[in-house]
Amino acid sequence: MASFARKKGGRRSRHTDWVSQGWWKIAPGQRRTPWTNVAYTGDIYVHGRTAKRTITSSDTLFCVDNTTSFKLGSADKVACKRKKFKKVGTAKMTTRGGMNTWNFH
Predict the structure, then answer these.
(1) Cβ-contact 3, 36 below 8 angstroms
(2) Structural domain boundaries enclosing 80
(3) What is 78-91 written as a DSSP string?
(4) CA–CA separation, 72 vs 53, rounded Å?
(5) Residue 30 within any structural domain of the chain
(6) CA-to-CA distance for 23 and 69, rounded, in angstroms?
(7) C-alpha–C-alpha distance, residues 28 and 25, integer Å
């Protein structure tokens, strides 16, 4: 998943970028809360796999670590050159603050 992060410094926002992080394993029929910042409103981008399909789109590409859990800043701009990294397509979803729920089948 990728979400927009704003890092504060002094009186001004010094740095803003898209941060990708993952992976979360969710067994069939189970629910999981991979991200708990309920104050966030705006777009997030999701990439995932089920036994039957891949959840992806060509909305935006983000760099991910293909081998283990990760958290990468500037994930939409980073060169993604390390062997274990790759750019993946993501599906855009919009959050409205509070608890947001999506069902993936």
Answers:
(1) no
(2) 2-6+15-23+42-96
(3) S---STTEEEEEEE
(4) 25
(5) no
(6) 5
(7) 10
User: What is the average pLDDT across 73-87?
Assistant: 87
pLDDT tens readout for residues 18-55? 888 888 887 777 777 666 566 777 888 888 887 788 87
CA-to-CA distance for 48 and 91, rounded, in angstroms? 9
Q: Residue 73's pLDDT is what? A: 87
Answer whether residue 35 is part of any domain: no
pLDDT tens string 51-68:
788 878 877 899 999 889
88 within domain boundaries: yes
**75 falls within a domain:** yes
Domain count, the chain: 1
Q: What single DSSP character describes residue 10?
A: T
Dist. CA 63–CA 50, nearest whole Å: 20
Locus of tokens 């104050």 = 39
Instruction: Quote the CA–CA distance of 11 and 9 in Å, as a whole number.
Output: 6
- DSSP category for residue 34: S
Question: Own/partner pairs for 79-82, CB < 8 Å, 24+ apart?
Answer: none
